[in-house]
Structures are given as C-alpha cells and as structure tokens.
Amino acid sequence: MFDRSTPIAVVRRLGREYGWVAAAVGLGALVLICSVPFVTGVGTNWISGDPFAAPPRVAPTAGSTPSPVQEEAAGPPTSAAPTATPSPSRTPAEAGTQPRPATRTTTTAPPAPRTTAPPPAAAPKAPVALGPEGGAMGLWQMLRDRCRSLHRDADARLRNWTGPAENNWECKRQGSQRSELIDMQAACRSKYGSVAFAQFSNGRDAFSWHCFKR
Questions:
Q1: Residue ranges of the domains in the chain?
Q2: Cβ within 8 Å of residue 45, ≥6 positions away
Q3: pTM over 0.70, yes/no
Q4: What phi, psi does 206 have (nearest 5°)?
Q5: What average pLDDT does range 22-30 have in this prediction?
Q6: What is the 3-state secondary structure (H, E, C) of the chain?
Q7: b/e map 175-198, b = 16+ CB within 10 Å
Q8: How far is Cα 76 from Cα 52, in angstroms, rounded to an integer?
Q9: 8 A C-beta contact, residue 119 and residue 154
Q10: Where are the stretches annotated Disordered (predicted)?
C-alpha cells in the first residue's frame, strides 16, 4: 500500500536543505531591480491614482535638447456658457419709419452715329462716237456746211495744211482776204445736236477730229 506521507517528507527535506538558495536568488533579484534607476539614470514612473493630477515630468536623456512644455493648470476643465446680450429694442418712432428704397436713375447712352461709307462712284462712261463718216472727206463736208450756215459763199479750208489739229480749220469767203477760225464744238452740235462735242485723236493731224456724246 502506497504511503501518502512520503512526498511531503521529501518536500520538507528539500526545503530545509535548499531554502537558503531560493532566498538568496530572490534577494539578488530585488537588489538588481532597485539598482536600475541608479545605473541607467531613468527613474521609475509612478502613476498617481488621482485622475486630475498633473502628469509627471520626464528627465531628458543625455545629449537631447529639452523642449519647452507648457504647464497646464491642474484641475477639471471648466466651460462657462457665454452670456447672451439682449439686443436693444426699437422705439415706436423707429418702428414706424421705414427706410425708403433708393431711386434708381438709368441713363441711356445715345446711339453711336452710323458711319456708312458712300457708294463708290460709277466709272465714267466711254464717249460714243457720232461721226462724221467718210474719213477726211466727211470731216471737210461737215465743216463746209458749218461755214455756209454762217456765210453763203464761205468754204472750209486749212491754214497750215495738215499740220496741227487745233486752230487750223477756218472759213474763207470768196473774194475776201479775211478768214475766221471754225468752232469745232459748234460744228459738231450743229450736225448732231446739243449733246455732241468735238475731240481730236492726234494733235498733229487736223483730220483726226470726231464728234462724240456721253
């Protein structure tokens, strides 16, 4: 039959023989824990049970620059509700007089004058040739008729043969030494009407006269 008192006796025996070893190990661990702040320079942070207590200050480590920490006042935060300021009440005189709306004055700018370019001038029409027909002979016959309308016995001739066109044709009466220049414009009008005019094409040719109209 197994004896229950045997393990208990063994434990007691071991406790008497090796109890000093356990006590020495525990004491060494306690000394080691207590010497940590002195060796490392960092103290143990003790947290207070007061919820409104100020947080503990931590000593700066060697070689670090201390930063300024703003200290806050200990104690619970207090918030005060702002006091409402009553607005001044309007007097009956002010309530009865309402500001009149400002009158708007609208000024209409006059319309800018329209600058319309004038229509381009029509190109002058080319003159229309009327005559005389028949070349040099037809011109001589027209001028002879002009001279005989002025003098019955007059005839048309050249002063300087076929020289310059201007101031060369004249009316010469038979048996008279006097002569007069023929008005070429009047000669054309008497032949073709009042709208006709005379013009030469060569200033050195007396037979280059013609009658035109526009």
A1: 128-213
A2: 56, 58
A3: no
A4: -70, -20
A5: 81
A6: CCCCHHHHHHHHHHHHHHHHHHHHHHHHHHHHHHHHHHHHCCCCCCCCCCCCCCCCCCCCCCCCCCCCCCCCCCCCCCCCCCCCCCCCCCCHHHHHCCCCCCCCCCCCCCCCCCCCCCCCCCCCCCCEEEECCCHHHHHHHHHHHHHHHHCCCEEEEECCCCCCCCCCEEEEECCCCCEEECCHHHHHHHHHCCCCEEEECCCCCHHHEEEEEC
A7: eeeeeeebebeebbbbbbeeebbb
A8: 6
A9: no
A10: 57-132
Residue 75 in this model has a pLDDT that exceeds 70: no
Amino acid identity for residue 182 in this structure: I
Taking Cα atoms as reference points, which of 101, 206, 116 lies closest to residue 164?
206
> pLDDT digits over 129-174, tens only?
998 999 999 999 999 999 999 988 899 999 887 779 999 999 998 8
Q: How far apart are CA 57 and CA 59, in angstroms?
A: 6
The dihedral sign for the CA sequence 183, 187, 190, 194? negative
Note if the bond before 56 is cis, omega within 30 degrees: no
Rounded to an integer, what is the distance from CA 174 to the centroid of its chain?
Answer: 90
Cα 49 to chain centroid distance, Å, stands at 73
Tokens, residue 171: 């009316």
> Which residues on neighbouring strands pair with residue 128, listed in sequence order?
213
Q: Which amino acid is at 2?
A: F
